[in-house]
User: Fold this.
Amino acid sequence: MTSISLDDTAYLGTPSKPASGLAIPTTCTGCGSSLAGLKQRSRWAKIGKARYLVHTWTCGCGKRRTIRQEVGAR
Assistant:
């Protein structure tokens, strides 16, 4: 297989954004009921130098599901 040297080629594209890895929960892990419409307010959290947006769903049985979405470092 031959390789192409891109050192002399002008870059004409734009960088693409990575796909969002946010998997939205659909069922409660405690009772198995649907979490549709039970999303709480999202909040910011900083762990080390990384910033996260924390999404929380609360079921009627009291069980919570939390997802941390990394937003970027500062």
